[in-house]
Amino acid sequence: MKNFKARLAGILACLLLFIVPLQADAGWNASPLPAASINTVFGDSTYLNPEWMTKKVTITWNGNTWMTGMDAFKDMPVRLTNNNGAIDCTFLNTAVFQSYFSAINASIASMTTTAAVPVFDNGAGSYIRISGTQHMEAVSSMPDWLAQMLHNLILTGQCTDITLELNDSMMTQVLDSGTVSTSSDFVLAGTCTTSFQTSGANRSNNIVVGASRLNNLIVLPGQTVSVSDTILPRTRANGYKEAGVYVNGAHTSGLGGGVCQISSTVYNAVKNAGLTVVQRNPHSMPVSYLPKGLDAAIAAGSKDLKFRNDYTTPVVLYTDTSNKHLTVNVLVWNQELAGRSFKLWAKQTGALSADTYFTTYQDGKEVSTQFVGTSRYNPYREAVSND
Fold it and tell me: PANTHER family given for it (predicted)?
C-alpha cells in the first residue's frame, strides 16, 4: 500500500508538471469590456486573470496565521471599468472579506480576553477603572484594506499572494462587558446634545447602535480615534438599517443613515473638551440638528472624524440616547485642565456658509480665539430616482 501511494504521488506530481506549462504556454488575455463599465464577479475569467483563484491571503499576528484562498472570493460582486486600457476593479460588497476578518477576530479574542485592570491610577485617589473583561481585535477597516489592496494590484496587472502581519496600529482593545468608572476629579470638560426626535425608527436605531460603540470609550494619551472605525462598518450584521443619507450632494437612502449625527455631536464634545481634531469634513448640504459650521460628516473610505488625546492622561467618552436625544460627554482629569475651558462655535457668513472658531478660557476669562475654517454647503436636493 505504501508503494502504491508513493507511486500515485509521483504520477500526480508528473501530471502537475505537465499541466502547468501547458497553461502558461496557452497564456491568458482579458477580453475587452463591452461597455464603459460592467458589473460582474471577482471570479469572472473573461476579464480578470483566472490565476487570482490560485492565490492566497495570509494574515499573521503574534506567531498565529490565518490563510484563505482567493477562490473563496470568486462570487463577490465587482464593477470593472476601463482605466486607460487597464482593468479598474471596485468591490461592490465586501461581506466575504468581513467574514474572513470576523473569523480572525474571534480567534484573536479567544487568545486575548482578560479581566479588566485599572487604566489609570496615580496612587493618590485619581483613577479610571474598567469592570468586566476586554479583548483585542483587528480594526474594523481591515476588509476595506483588503479590497483596496486587490483593487491596486489588479489595476497594475500584478497577480500575487497577499500577506500581512498585523501591527499595533491595526489592533484595538474592545470592552466585552462592564462599565468605566472614574474618580471625582475627572470632570466633565466637553459635552454636546443633539435631538433626533423627528427621526424615523430606522434612523433612530442607527444613532442608538452607533453611539453605543462610543460609550465607555477610553482614549489613551497620544491615541487617535476614528469615529468611522469605532462605530463599525454600516452593515446589517452590525445592526444598521436603511435610512436617509447624503450622497453626491443629494438626499437619498442607505445603510447606516443618521450616523453623521453621531460624528457631529462627538466633534463638538471633543473640541469643547480640548482634544485635537485631526480630520473633519462638513456635509455637502446643511443638517438640521446643529448650526452650520459645527457638523462633521463620515462616509466609509472618504470622510471621517478623527480626534487625538494630547493630554498626558486618558480621557473617557460617555454617550446617552435616552428620550431621542444624543448626548456625548467627555471627562478629563481636572489637573490637566488647570482652570482652562473651551468652546467650539460658528458664525454664519451666508445662506450656505459659516466660519468656525475655537475659544480658550482661563478661569472663565477668554484668552484666545482661533479661526478653525470655513464650511460651504450646497442647497438641499433630493436624489432623482432612476426607476
Answer: EXPORTED PROTEIN, EXPORTED PROTEIN-RELATED
Nearest to 148 by CA among 104, 94, 105: 94
Residue 212: CA count within 13 A, CB half-sphere:
13
Last residue of a domain, one of 183, 208, 234: 183
pLDDT given for residue 385 in this prediction: 52
Amino acid present at 165: E
86 is in which domain, residue-wise? 29-183
- CA distance linking residue 180 with residue 164, whole number of Å: 33
13 assigned to some structural domain:
no
SS3 (DSSP) at 288: coil
**Which of 136, 154, 183 delimits the end of a domain?**
183
Cell of 363: 478661569
**Letter for the amino acid at 174?**
V
Largest CA distance in the chain: 91
DSSP, collapsed to helix, strand or coil, labels residue 12 as helix
Task: Collect all residues with Cβ–Cβ distance below 8 Å to 118 and sequence separation of at least 6.
Answer: 127, 128, 129, 130
pTM: predicted TM-score of the whole model, two decimal places:
0.70
pLDDT at 86: 86
- Separation CA 75–CA 41 (nearest Å): 5
Q: Report pLDDT for 101.
A: 95
Q: Are residues 214 and 150 in the same domain?
A: no
C-alpha distances in Å from residue 10, one per residue of 1, 13, 16, 61: 14, 5, 10, 36
Identify the CATH number of the domain in which residue 106 sits: 3.10.20
